[in-house]
Structure formats: structure tokens, C-alpha cells
Automatic annotation (TrEMBL):
Gfo/Idh/MocA-like oxidoreductase N-terminal domain segment(s): 42-165
Originating species: Maribacter caenipelagi
Family annotation (InterPro entries): Gfo/Idh/MocA-like_OxRdtase_N, Gfo/Idh/MocA_oxidrdct_glycsds, GFO_IDH_MocA-like_dom, Glc-Fru_OxRdtase_bac, NAD(P)-bd_dom_sf, TAT_signal
GO molecular function: nucleotide binding; oxidoreductase activity
Keywords, alphabetical: Oxidoreductase
Domain GFO/IDH/MocA-like oxidoreductase: 175-294
SUPFAM superfamilies in the cross-refs: Glyceraldehyde-3-phosphate dehydrogenase-like, C-terminal domain, NAD(P)-binding Rossmann-fold domains
UniProt cross-references to Pfam families, sorted A to Z: GFO_IDH_MocA, GFO_IDH_MocA_C3
Protein name, as recorded: Glucose-fructose oxidoreductase
Keyword Repeat applies: no
Length: 378
């Protein structure tokens, strides 16, 4: 497949939408759909740490609608290694200082920010200003205010924005959403979800440094449990109460270790989530009026596994979630399909994260959430 430069795509797309120009005897709207099938969007990864190295770059070898076109790294040694491994030309290699000149690079359509959480907003906004579509890793930022800044920058610069919520593209998630929507097991009454792991590594890692992470388990793994609580009920919560537990304060000096939270939903459903950097958890279970369904594991890279109360096992062919996710976003850009993880979803989750921290600060007091105007229910 050939790559598609943003300028040529925009020209084709604009003319296609207007539908007035003809290519030979063919209306341009048709010419556009034929043209785009042969193109791939160029993605530049910003931050070549473990997620980019072991998940995103290999996944970009499997994507149908995008490919790894460029890199942005602060580590000089990585440049040649990545260039050779992924056949990246020198002109598509950037560092954090010259990153803004990516504006002039037609090979790059999408910038994917894979840096520590407190750096997301800065690089997403710079990418938007450079006219590039943006994928921002989870958690979207370290505050609701920063989420707004990213969303506004993308709107102002007329570029698309997505959050790296790979689960939104996973077939098991789609199946769960179908059960919820179609009430296959009746009404969902109670959802339980866990997302955590035992952190034993370097105590100086950025995930344990609040200035870089914005918070601990809740920021890192908790957003998965928030997501499953929401798509497990098919609604945004109307309130949350939360508790924090600390057993290794000498290691978790700066960030939360274990958090539990309870959500209420408008239809009377309830959810309980647990997130931890000191306990393993990787599960979603939905208890319904006529049975149950569960994913376990639910949040890892896959294969995911699921079961239902009528004895069925969920089985879908394995495909890298990250490849599905980046293809979904590329199709959104190229074909106008649904953005399955828009910026507003990342902002909604950050509103919930902030409410959880506030509840803990206020001794577990219930926090009312008004997420109606967010317009996102997944
Ligand atoms: P990592 O520590 O492996 O990589 C971080 C990268 O940022 C490195 O290349 C590092 O050199 C660079 N960096 C730049 N400035 C830095 C600084 N001041 N301190 C530390 N590193 C700095 O982290 P990661 O696991 O690749 O995570 C990166 C982002 O991806 C995070 O936002 C994380 O939440 C997200 N992530 C998402 C998933 C997922 O499943 N969606 C999985 C893992 C990580």
C-alpha cells in the first residue's frame, strides 16, 4: 500500500465532500473511496519506551490503514536502531526539541504520544498545532483542565483526537457491550471490576513520581476499571465514593497504592472497582437479572477470555488490540467511521478520577457526577 500525505488526502476529501469535480467520467466522491483504499496513514510514535517498543511498533506492522512512518525520541542511541528495524528515513526522525518542525513533514499524518502522563498535554497540543491527528496514551492527562486543553487544541487546528483505549477496539469488549445493550442476560444490576498488578520495580520510576504520573494505581490501571464499570453497565455513573489503602508507604511514597470505588447509575445499577499497584486484578463481571457474564482476563493485551452463565465461553480470533485500535482511528480519519475512543471519553474518565481522589480526601464522601453534557456513553 502507498502512504497518503495529509495534504493530498485533504484535497481529495474536500473535493469528494463537495462532490462537484469529476475525475475522467467518475464523480470525485467515488474516486475518493477508491483512492483511499490504496493508502496508509503515516504514524509517528513520540516516546520509544516499553509500550512503543513492545506493543505499538510491532502492531504497526500488522495494521491495514496506517504504518510506522516516524519516531520522536530523546535518546540518540535509539534513532539508528529504530530506523534500521522499521525502515524509517532520517528525515522522519525527531527529538523533543525539533519536534514542532514535524509540521513540514507530509509523511506524518498521525502523532501518537506515548510519554509519561504529565507530558501528554504538551506534546498532544504541539502535535495538533503542527496539523497532525493525535492519539494520546491513557490516562489522557493529569487533570480535566489539561484534557480540555488537548481537546480545544485539536478542534482549533481541525485535527482528530483519540485516546489509547485499546479495549474499545477489542472484540470481547464489543460482545460485552452487545449483551448490555440487548439485555441478553437481563438488566445489568451490579458490575465488579479489578485492574492492578504488584509493582516491585525501581522505586524511582516515573509511575511512582506524582509530578510525572499525576497519581498512582488509579491513573495507571484504574482508568481500565473505570472503563469496564461504564461499558459493563452501558451508562455513565451519577456518583462515586472511594477509599484508599496503603500497606507499603515506604515504596509508594508519592502515589496511591490501592483504591476501591463504588459507582451509582441512574437506572439503579451499582458498580464496584478495585485498582492497585500492590495486588493483581484483571477482571470484569456483570451480574444481571437473568444471569451473568464475565471477562477474565479483561484488561491485558490478550488473548482475553470470557464466560457466561449459560455455560458459553467467548472465543474470538486473536488480533493485537493495538493494531485494531490504530486501524479504527485511521478509518475514522480516512472513512469517517466512528471514533471509538474520542478525547471526550478520556476527559470523562479524568472527571471520574478527580472525583475519586476528592472522595478519598473527604473521607469517602459520595461525589455527584454530572456527565450528561459529555455526551459519551459506552
Ligand atoms: P516507559 O517508561 O517504558 O517509557 C517512557 C518513555 O518516555 C521513554 O522512552 C522515556 O525515555 C521517555 N521520557 C521522556 N521524558 C521522560 C521523563 N522525564 N521521565 C521518564 N521517561 C521520559 O513507559 P511506557 O510504559 O511506555 O508508558 C508510556 C505511556 O504509555 C504512559 O502514558 C502509559 O500510561 C501508557 N501505556 C499505555 C498502555 C496501554 O495498554 N494502553 C500500556 C503501557 C503504557
Amino acid at each position: 500500500m502507498k502512504k497518503l500525505s495529509r495534504r493530498s488526502f485533504s484535497t481529495i476529501a474536500t473535493k469528494g465532500i463537495l462532490g462537484t469535480t469529476l475525475l475522467g467520467n467518475m464523480p470525485l466522491a467515488n474516486a475518493f473511496s477508491i483512492e483511499q483504499k490504496n493508502k496508509k496513514l503515516g504514524v509517528a510514535l513520540v516516546g520509544l519506551g516499553s509500550y512503543s517498543t513492545y506493543q505499538l511498533a510491532p502492531s504497526l506492522l500488522e495494521t491495514e490503514y496506517c504504518y510506522l512512518a516516524g519516531i520522536v525520541t530523546g535518546t540518540k542511541d535509539k534513532e539508528a536502531l529504530w530506523q534500521e528495524k522499521y525502515n524509517i528515513p532520517k528525515k522522519n526522525v525527531y527529538n523533543y526539541d525539533n519536534f514542532d518542525t514535524i509540521l513540514n513533514n507530509e509523511d506524518i499524518d498521525v502523532v501518537y504520544v506515548v510519554l509519561p502522563n504529565s507530558m501528554h498535554a504538551d506534546f498532544c497540543i504541539r502535535a495538533a498545532k503542527a496539523g497532525k491527528h493525535v492519539i494520546c496514551e491513557k490516562p489522557m492527562a493529569v487533570s480535566v483542565e489539561e484534557c480540555d486543553d488537548i481537546i480545544n487544541a485539536c478542534k482549533e487546528n481541525n485535527v482528530k483526537l483519540s485516546v489509547g483505549y485499546r479495549m474499545q477496539s477489542d472484540l470481547y469488549t464489543h460482545e460485552v457491550k452487545k449483551y448490555v445493550k440487548e439485555k441478553t442476560f437481563g438488566d445489568v444490576l451490579f458490575v465488579s471490576s479489578d485492574a492492578g498488578y504488584i509493582s516491585k520495580g525501581n522505586p524511582d520510576q516515573w509511575r511512582l513520581d506524582k509530578s510525572l504520573s499525576g497519581g498512582g494505581a488509579l491513573m495507571n490501571m484504574g482508568v481500565y476499571a473505570i472503563q469496564t464499570s461504564i461499558y459493563g453497565t452501558g451508562q455513565n455513573p451519577i456518583s462515586v465514593s472511594a477509599q484508599e489503602f496503603s500497606t507499603r508507604p515506604e515504596y509508594f511514597k508519592d502515589t496511591d497504592e490501592t483504591i476501591t470505588a463504588q459507582f451509582k447509575f441512574d437506572n439503579g445499577a451499582v458498580a464496584h472497582m478495585m485498582t492497585s499497584h500492590n495486588a493483581n486484578g484483571n477482571r470484569l463481571k456483570c451480574h444481571c437479572s437473568k444471569g451473568w457474564f464475565e471477562l477474565d482476563p479483561a484488561h491485558s493485551y490478550g488473548p482475553i477470555s470470557g464466560r457466561t452463565s449459560n455455560g458459553n465461553t467467548l472465543e474470538f480470533p486473536f488480533k493485537k488490540q493495538q493494531a485494531l485500535q490504530m486501524d479504527d482511528f485511521s478509518k475514522h480519519i480516512l472513512l469517517g467511521t466512528k471514533n471509538v475512543a474520542p478525547g471526550e471519553m478520556g476527559k470523562r474518565d479524568m472527571i471520574i478520577v478527580e472525583a475519586i481522589y476528592k472522595s478519598i480526601y473527604e473521607g469517602g464522601k459520595e461525589q455527584l457526577l454530572s456527565l450528561g453534557d459529555i455526551g459519551i456513553v459506552y
